[in-house]
Predict the 3D structure of the following.
Amino acid sequence: MNLARFPRVSLAHLPTPLERLDNLTRALNGPEIWIKRDDCTGLSTGGNKTRKLEFLMAAAQAEGADTVITQGATQSNHARQTAAAAAKLGMGCHLLLEDRTKKTEFDYTQNANVLFDALHGAVIERCALHPDMNGEMMKIADRLKAAGHKVYAIPGGGSNPIGALGYVDAAMELVMQANTARLKIDHVVHATGSAGTQAGLAAGFAGLHSDIKLLGVGVRAPRERQEANVFQLACATADLLGMSGAVKREHIMANCDYVGEGYGFPARSTIDAIRMLAKLEAILLDPVYSGKGMAGLIDLVRKGYFKKGETVVFIHTGGQIGLTAYASDFLTNG
Ligand SMILES: *Cc1c(COP(=O)(O)O)cnc(C)c1O
């Protein structure tokens, strides 16, 4: 896996810390729990999209693009990190934000990620829930091209094989850190959405012949669809790396029992997990992704799926700026 042959720009603070969660481990009395702080990647409050954007923005530059375009939900962390990356690299940025929740509060529609999008100078367009957001985005890209721009389109979540390289790199970084710390990792757990994070990790672990078990906790799609999306992208990422066939279907596991009402709606278990980590570890999770991922981890420890004597690493994928868009959920939920 020779990642250095792919164009890359430096955007993230790497390596991100790998830390033991002593208080959570003690409270749950199960496996030893560690956290990989990908919320600390540094770019405009950080998060997992920054690793992907190191490869995606370099690809945009290599094609001579002056503008990038991407899409996501109103409170998309990916859109915010893309806007920040474009600002830093002196490129234009267009965002198409989809209203997936019909929330009307100012904090949701204008604050948090949306505020940062605007501060970074992105042009924001909005649309209602749409089955083909990447298609809608390409219509805007065509309009920008007709106006003379050289446009590079980044799919939702930055999830294509180029973006997933960021998480191939993260897999290598994590295995290296664990070796240095003499830490035997049994499981890695994280929130999975547009699939690039899990696909990159799966391809990276396969390329390293690591026996670490990877579990994505879903935030939107049902399990079968989520696993199929991740598997397809992991295989395409392996192809790009010249290691076709390395990722096996049985390497791809998702648990989608913690979605609750749907994408962008924190479940009771999400709120509880956010409160628990904030109080026990002074770590802030987010209401759309990492809070659901941690709710899954906590419940699966309690159910005995992760056992005493094992080591579980939770990848904190960021997004905590989104908490301010959801303040009312915390005030009304005890
Ligand atoms: C995008 C995102 C995820 C999910 O990552 P995917 O690569 O889209 O599966 C998880 N957590 C946060 C905070 C995110 O913004």
